[in-house]
Amino acid sequence: MDLGLRLLSPPRSRENSASGSQFSSPYRKRARVTTLCIGRLVPPQTPDKIIPLVTRYLEAEFAKLNSKNKLRVYCEHGGKPWVADIRHWNYEAAIKATQAVYNKVPDMTREGGSIPVTLTFAETLGVNVLLLPMGRGDDGAQ
Fold this sequence. Notes:
The chain is of the alpha+beta class. It has 2 domains: 2-77; 83-142, no CATH class. The protein has 3 helices and 5 strands; from the N terminus they run ββββαβαα. It has helices spanning 47-63, 89-102, 117-125, and strands at 2-8, 14-15, 22-23, 32-38, 70-77. It has a 3-stranded antiparallel sheet with strand order 4-1-5, with helices on one face. It starts with a strand and ends in a 17-residue tail after the last helix.
């Protein structure tokens, strides 16, 4: 679930005290602050249920500020959560391969990821899907 947040400030103009002229650049009339809020869902959460809750919460918190700015919350995309059974034979094979190559038992962690097509593959093809990392855990891959 990727939520984009926008705060729009009202147009402003500055008066130059020395000459009395107004500074009015079309680029200065509106300031925009955009931030990205990324949330990871876990079963049984779904974007249809969570996005409205997050939106209402952000709007309620923003209203408490009594700001002249505007808040716009929108969702760019939302993928359903995916979890696989690590006791499946392909996971067991991946564990054995990792042990053979690195001489260590791999950590089986549940990490968030932005690969919504994974669930589509699993459901459509009726198969178990295995995702293998291709880098270090601190690479910051999305």
